[in-house]
Amino acid sequence: MTVDELLPTTRRALLHRAATAQREGRLPSLSAAVIRGRETVWSIGRGEVAGRPPTTDTQYRIGSLTKTLVAVLVLRLREEGLLDLGDPLEKHLETTEGGEATIAQLLSHTSGLAAEARGPWWERTEGALRPQPADVFGAHPRRHPAGRIHHYSNPGYALLGALVERLRGAPWHQVLRQEVLRPLGMERTGYAPRAPHADGWAVHPWADALLPEPAVDTGLMAPAGQLWSTTADLSRFAAFLLHGDDRVLGADTLAEMRAPMAGPQGADWSGGYGLGIQLLRRDGRLLHGHTGSMPGFVACLWTSPRDDLATVVLANATSGDVAGPAADLLDTVARLEPRIPEPWRPAPDLDPALLELTGPWYWGTQPMTVRLRPDGTLDLAPLDGGHGRAATFRPGPDGTFTGLDGYYAGEPLRPVRRPDGTLSHLDIGTFVLTRRPYAPEDAIPGGVDEQGWR
Predict the structure, then answer these.
(1) For 365-403, how does the pLDDT look when each residue is reduced to its tens digit (9 = 90+)?
(2) Residue limits of the DUF7586 domain (predicted)?
(3) Which residue, among 171, 159, 142, 156, has the nearest Cα to 93 in the 3D structure?
(4) Distance of CA 78 to the CA centre of its chain
């Protein structure tokens, strides 16, 4: 058995969970996969598509998982300097509504735009009913002030698709194929279904009966949920979301996409949203990914960077829970076969100037520690293990550091030296950290009482 293979007991537990989800959820078919690291380590098909169990190559409609792929395109535009996430949309795209919302607000569903498009149920009607951008919006396009709260908006992603087309000069789905799908090897992901694919079904709520669902071209609303894909392709996408790919987006940008952009609503919050990525807090684990639904289909992709795991579950039913089973599959592997850490090794090119910054420091009377990571970043944390004012700092070319998270996100850390070159203190956004608590000779703003401690 190689290190990537799952134990028989784990595979049995995964089989039981997937089979139970398909049967109890009354799903005509279900296709699922587990990804560990960069490899698919388990997959299964239950139920039937055209008389046979689905395979990892069977296409399903993935609904709002489309949004995460569109968000990747938008972040690529940012990486190339063609836009800033703080730009109002109207700086780059003429639109009758939503122009004052920033691109980040559209990505994170905080633009305040209405949840659904104008006219009849857009997921079940042809896009020809909304031929022009203005036709996407109904009589009340705005439900909240931009930036105020999280309010899921499908039209918001229609605007982001139009933004990609405006800046790239080509249909968004063609840009997606060229810039994301082909580099990642996702050849079975596309705008329209290609055999073998599942048909969409509605399952009667009170009887074991099926009704075919329409699979329409949603036109201008397509960036909100049009795409079709397979568990094999989405497993490749999940590995990308975990590790990045410099041909598409790097790991740092994907970490930025996972950061929550909208504050929790309610004391018992279990979910949030980043830049095109949903967040789910479940069983002490924070999952990142997206759910999706279109008439006849439900889909889910979850990743856990901490565990280096991901799961994909696709089914062809209008309603049904696949997000819960997907999370359970991930938890099963994480619990039964926890990630084996890499062997510890000493850092290869240790910088003595960085090593000098490590150890205990005092912010007033609060003991803090600075630890040096192998990648040259600094971890600042309270000595007692609490979370107050903890942050990671990335080194810059001028000898200063920039906070990446926590209270000090974006704030500068500057090592200050005495005239003789010795290290005096750390200045973090004007706060001073010294080697001893309130030593008279240290550079403490406001000075230290002459009588000292007593």
Answers:
(1) 999 999 999 888 999 999 887 767 899 999 999 999 999
(2) 351-435
(3) 159
(4) 16
Give the C-alpha separation, 175 to 18, whole Å: 35
- CA 283 to chain CA centroid, Å, is 18
The backbone torsions φ and ψ at residue 249, rounded to the nearest 5 degrees and listed phi first, read -150, 145
Eight-class DSSP state of 340 = P
Q: Look up tokens 């559209």; give the residue.
A: 106
Residue 330, C-beta contacts closer than 8 angstroms, at least 6 positions apart: 34, 285, 287, 302, 304, 307, 309, 310, 311
Domain map of the chain by residue range? 8-336, 353-433
Tokens, residue 371: 């630890």
The architecture (CATH level 2) of 8-336 comes to: 3-Layer(aba) Sandwich (3.40)
Whether the Cβ atoms of residue 237 and residue 182 lie closer than 8 Å to each other: no
User: What average pLDDT does range 135-141 have in this prediction?
Assistant: 76
Cα separation values, 148 from 105, 155, 261, 403, 409, Å: 10, 18, 11, 25, 21
Write the pLDDT tens digit of every residue in 269-296.
Answer: 678 899 999 999 988 899 999 999 999 9
